Amino acid sequence: MNSIFTMVLAGGKGERLKPLTEHRAKPAVPFGGKYRIIDFTLSNCLNSGLRRVAVLIQYKSHSLDRHIRIGWNVLNAELGEYIASIPPQQRISEEWYRGTADAVYQNLFLWEGEQAEYILILAGDHIYKMNYMEMFHWLVAKNADVVVGAIDIPIQEANRFGVMTVDEDYRVTRFDEKPSNPTPLPNDPDTVFGSMGIYLFRSKSLREELIADAKEGTAHDFGKNIIPRMIANRKVYAFKFQDANRKAVKYWRDIGTLDAYWEANLDLVAVDPLFNLYDQQWPIRTYQGQFPPAKFVFAQDYQGGRMGVALDSVVCGGCIISGGRVQNSVLSPNVRVQDHSDVRDSVIMENVVIGEHSRIRRAIVDKDVVIPAKTEIGYDREADAQRFTVTESGLVVISKGMKLHASVDSSG
């Protein structure tokens, strides 16, 4: 474990998640009520025993940097352990990061100073559970220069992924970005190996490849350039994803769209969700805000009365359901749902106030939004589209801190 240095790439703009990424990087987007997307990768690191982690950030970095600083300052620096956010420093050139490989190249000094034998490269915007040490053991067993995390993908979805062609020993013989005619697995004609964006390198090999790539006019990307070139002259192996989520179906999500984000959140409220947040053997850490317990008030269960209730929902600390109804939804901390309001199939983020007699359905409401009384969202697509972001499926997304006015937004 002490020979591995981990670098988490967390600089993505997350264009397809706008407006959730208007004010924050994709890894900093809230998820599951109390978490941020990056918490799942960082929790995997801690649960795998990795204690030297650098998070490379670039765009809209304030929210992510603050979250790491106050929520992940949990290791002992005196023992050489840390999780630290690293901004672009232009040590090698005056360029911003030009690709995933260039981001690591511009931070060569970090892992050279640590004298690490192995470099683990991770993405900071995926939801999954994985013990990275199993990947390390595979690299040692195969005497590989690099091991690439791989997940089974239906062959008809191959055009969304980097796809690896492997032999029977899992050695990679070809790597194609989003191929239209992919090569299936040797023993499964309906499945391909998709890259998870996880790479474990021997540091000497990686250094040589990054220096060579920096001199060429490439995209400076691991999937497009570094891995394909290494296949010709080095040992490149695929590591089949071993899911620590311990469910019948493996769980790995690249939450790239608003609809995918909404679906992944709402899965958490199921009786038996695909992703288990309650596994004490694999804890998911995050920043814990100082919020009081959630509270549900008013129980006048008669026609026309008030009842504060949440059904099939995740409700975080600081929430008060005051005479309203919440169903099949995820509520982040400090949300207020007032008298006779009805919230269904929605993701409500921190510090949102939902005024009395409002109705919200199939919506994502970002932080610090106050919804006036008698507002309806998710019931009139044309009206919603004039004010908010609406996806092709009809999902309504309200931007962080957006000002809604009762004279415009109320239904009566």
UniProtKB/TrEMBL annotation:
Gene name, Swiss-Prot/TrEMBL: glgC
Reaction it catalyzes: alpha-D-glucose 1-phosphate + ATP + H(+) = ADP-alpha-D-glucose + diphosphate
The protein's assembly and partners: Homotetramer.
Signal peptide (UniProt feature, chain positions): none
PROSITE patterns assigned to the protein according to its UniProt record, in alphabetical order: ADP_GLC_PYROPHOSPH_2 (PS00809)
Protein purpose: Involved in the biosynthesis of ADP-glucose, a building block required for the elongation reactions to produce glycogen. Catalyzes the reaction between ATP and alpha-D-glucose 1-phosphate (G1P) to produce pyrophosphate and ADP-Glc.
Keyword terms: ATP-binding, Carbohydrate metabolism, Glycogen biosynthesis, Glycogen metabolism, Nucleotide-binding, Nucleotidyltransferase, Transferase
Gene Ontology biological process: glycogen biosynthetic process
Site (Could play a key role in the communication between the regulatory and the substrate sites) location in chain: 58, 96
Root EC class: transferase
Entry EC number(s): 2.7.7.27
Name of protein: Glucose-1-phosphate adenylyltransferase
Family: Belongs to the bacterial/plant glucose-1-phosphate adenylyltransferase family.
Record domain Glucose-1-phosphate adenylyltransferase/Bifunctional protein GlmU-like C-terminal hexapeptide: where: 292-398
Database matches in Pfam families: Hexapep_GlmU (PF24894), NTP_transferase (PF00483)
GO molecular function annotations of the record: ATP binding; glucose-1-phosphate adenylyltransferase activity
NCBIfam families, alphabetized: glgC, PRK00725.1, PRK00844.1
